[in-house]
């Protein structure tokens, strides 16, 4: 009880003024929580404001085209969040008449909502005593209680969830949950936490044992795979290019990209040109191949590192229907492609 009272008192003094803290509307809370997954507040805030402005209600979001939702999401990464966001908005709008479930158990049934998000919405919007556990919470609890159970293990997830549930203020679950997340975000930070003014300094095990930098413990993930991507940026004499929609279940599903050639090794003009001469888009036509980026662009994803080159392919007329270069900014693309488009200044 002392822990929760100290924490919520700290929060009352130090909390940031954020727009989703001015409401308990489940649509706004849900939207903010999905955006802030894997995303810092300073990056997510403008996206939240953009979504609220364009889609002020769950019905507006449900009626949007997925392509428009992905375009607005562009740059946040983890695009499955945006696809699930759109799918869930349709379900809530059409099947639940715009009303979000008012409890943790039923919130969990919605696509894209897991334990953390369901707990956040249930506590903030409906005052349910459901403790949140995210990266910030893992860090605070592991340091304060000196817990070295790996946070990305099944044992760890159960242990920390149970502990958080025991600590939560049953009379004020909303403020407790927001307080512990805020404390981890701005006080008990991953690096250089501000321990000198921490209200838990005397009782924090990690501080007193000098193990702050060792906690929380996380099992190292498998080494990321290395891939070589070669994007073919077609430019025709009538100022058209080609963007292709990605299919399947990959991380960039339903986003657009330039035609891609994946190779086992890094390529140069001499080695790539014979390879792409047999490509369906280039076979039996003349073209000029120009390497755009001299240095390989390394785009790091959670499970793979993409060693990327962009190749300008100048042709007469495209072999398939393309798009006007002037329209290229209308399409949702991965940030890797978006950055190139901005640099190339189409």
From TrEMBL:
<keyword id="KW-0004">4Fe-4S</keyword>
<dbReference type="InterPro" id="IPR023170">
    <property type="entry name" value="HhH_base_excis_C"/>
</dbReference>
<dbReference type="InterPro" id="IPR044298">
    <property type="entry name" value="MIG/MutY"/>
</dbReference>
<dbReference type="Pfam" id="PF00730">
    <property type="entry name" value="HhH-GPD"/>
</dbReference>
<dbReference type="InterPro" id="IPR000445">
    <property type="entry name" value="HhH_motif"/>
</dbReference>
<comment type="function">
    <text>Adenine glycosylase active on G-A mispairs. MutY also corrects error-prone DNA synthesis past GO lesions which are due to the oxidatively damaged form of guanine: 7,8-dihydro-8-oxoguanine (8-oxo-dGTP).</text>
</comment>
<dbReference type="InterPro" id="IPR005760">
    <property type="entry name" value="A/G_AdeGlyc_MutY"/>
</dbReference>
<comment type="similarity">
    <text>Belongs to the Nth/MutY family.</text>
</comment>
<dbReference type="InterPro" id="IPR015797">
    <property type="entry name" value="NUDIX_hydrolase-like_dom_sf"/>
</dbReference>
<keyword id="KW-0378">Hydrolase</keyword>
<keyword id="KW-0479">Metal-binding</keyword>
<dbReference type="Pfam" id="PF00633">
    <property type="entry name" value="HHH"/>
</dbReference>
<feature type="domain" description="HhH-GPD">
    <location>
        <begin position="35"/>
        <end position="186"/>
    </location>
</feature>
<keyword id="KW-0411">Iron-sulfur</keyword>
<keyword id="KW-0227">DNA damage</keyword>
<dbReference type="Pfam" id="PF14815">
    <property type="entry name" value="NUDIX_4"/>
</dbReference>
<keyword id="KW-0326">Glycosidase</keyword>
<keyword id="KW-0408">Iron</keyword>
<dbReference type="InterPro" id="IPR003265">
    <property type="entry name" value="HhH-GPD_domain"/>
</dbReference>
<protein>
    <recommendedName>
        <fullName>Adenine DNA glycosylase</fullName>
        <ecNumber>3.2.2.31</ecNumber>
    </recommendedName>
</protein>
<dbReference type="InterPro" id="IPR011257">
    <property type="entry name" value="DNA_glycosylase"/>
</dbReference>
<keyword id="KW-0234">DNA repair</keyword>
<dbReference type="InterPro" id="IPR029119">
    <property type="entry name" value="MutY_C"/>
</dbReference>
């Amino acid at each position: 009880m002392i822990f929760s009272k100290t924490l919520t008192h700290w929060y009352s003094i130090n909390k940031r003024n954020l727009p989703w803290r001015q409401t308990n509307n489940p649509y706004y809370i849900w939207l903010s929580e999905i955006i802030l997954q894997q995303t810092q507040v300073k990056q997510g805030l403008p996206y939240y404001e953009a979504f609220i402005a364009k889609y002020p209600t769950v019905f507006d979001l449900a009626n949007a085209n997925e392509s428009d939702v992905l375009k607005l999401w562009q740059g946040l990464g983890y695009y499955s969040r945006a696809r699930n966001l759109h799918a869930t908005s349709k379900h809530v709008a059409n099947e639940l008449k715009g009303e979000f479930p008012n409890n943790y158990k039923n919130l969990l049934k919605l696509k894209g909502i897991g334990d953390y998000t369901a707990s956040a919405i249930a506590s903030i919007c409906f005052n349910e005593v459901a403790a949140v556990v995210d990266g910030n919470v893992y860090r605070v609890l592991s340091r304060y209680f000196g817990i070295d159970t790996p946070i990305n293990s099944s044992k760890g997830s159960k242990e920390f969830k149970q502990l958080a549930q025991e600590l939560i203020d049953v009379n004020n679950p909303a403020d407790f949950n927001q307080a512990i997340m805020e404390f981890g975000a701005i006080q008990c930070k991953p690096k250089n936490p501000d321990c000198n003014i921490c209200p838990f300094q005397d009782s924090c095990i990690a501080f007193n044992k000098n193990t702050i930098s060792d906690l929380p413990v996380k099992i190292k993930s498998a080494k990321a795979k290395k891939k070589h991507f070669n994007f073919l940026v077609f430019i025709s004499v009538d100022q058209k290019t080609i963007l292709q929609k990605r299919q399947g279940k990959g991380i960039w599903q339903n986003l657009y990209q330039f035609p891609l050639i994946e190779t086992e090794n890094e390529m140069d003009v001499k080695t790539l040109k014979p390879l792409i001469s047999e490509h369906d888009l280039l076979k039996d036509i003349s073209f000029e191949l120009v390497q755009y980026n001299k240095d390989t662009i390394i785009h790091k994803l959670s499970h793979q590192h993409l060693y990327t080159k962009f190749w300008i392919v100048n042709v007469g007329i495209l072999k398939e229907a393309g798009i006007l270069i002037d329209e290229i900014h209308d399409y949702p693309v991965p940030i890797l492609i978006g950055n190139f488009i901005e640099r190339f200044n189409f």
